[in-house]
Amino acid sequence: MKTHTIGIIMNGVTGRMGTNQHLIRSVLAIRGQGGVRLANGDMILPDPILVGRNPDKVRALAEAHGVSRVAPSLEAALADPFNRIYFDAQTTDRRAAAVRQAIAAGKAIYCEKPTAADTATAAALYRECVAAGLKNGVVQDKLWLGGLRKLRALIDSGSFGRILSVRGEFGYWVFEGDKQPAQRPSWNYRKEDGGGIAIDMLCHWRYVIDNLFGKVAAISCLCATHVPERRDEQGRAYACTAEDAFYATMQTDQGLIVQFNSSWCTRVRRDDLLTLHVDGARGSAVAGLRDCWTQSAEDTPRAVWNPDIEQPIKFFDGWRKMPDDPSHDNAFKAQWELFLRHVVNDEPFPWTLLEGAKGVQLAEKGLESWRKRAWVEVGAIA
Description:
By secondary structure, the chain is α/β, with parallel strands linked by helices. Helices cover about 30% and strands about 25% of the residues.
């Protein structure tokens, strides 16, 4: 048995998502389990090196989690041939320049979404990787969530019969930063800094819809900035220049209607922060982050409209919770393991930077639809 130790440059992981999901729950968790085992018994052991704009934060993060390697600069990390993978979790407006540095250094590229601030740049990054012969990928974590894996199994088994419609609801209340600290960074609400929920979340819904319900063909979208002023990390008031909610209707290439509401200004009264409600001729399902509930045509209650009496049907009681999958793992970690297998053992990895560009494209088309107050076609990326 051989161990393939592989250096991973992790840029911008001092933020909430980078620290928790990518460093702690993915790369360090993989190290903690001894690596990723290949079919021949060999192991892949990731060895992270941290880099970022704030050296003090980077060093503190490394010390807190036992990471021995910290780079003095991105250039120094890229110059070391031991580091074969470049991972980027910076803010969107900084991503393309750093990824291009990594491409020039011949590194495999793996990065968060949005992969760029616009479709042209996102597509160019993919083409540049291909031209350089470099393996590349984008984080599409929600495909490995427990609830969506169960939903995928229902679709594959034909449980729905003909799927009629899909409704997605995502969001929660993000505090304004005055009475309670905000749960999201202030740049999320400034368009000039790459913020906005459309560019953030439509990138996610593109790959979810494409992989479960058919390719997105058209979109009609309305955005809003419901909270006009918030307070930043220093407690200073600032004007919100980016949208904090969008309400989208999409059509797939199979003619399926998919509605998606996403908001940082909503109080949750549903099963989870994200729910996907799928209605089919033979049954329905509601999937959350971890769980999925189903109702067959035979178990569907006979609803009768009568507002003059208390509702006699307890609608939540008519749904069955699907059993958990014991093999389920953290969604980010699951995709990290696949990407490591791809880089070291050339195993398939279809979630390339082209898929990332498609997400950016849908966000741009959604914003275009909002400006035009019209349906906008979503075509192939040239």
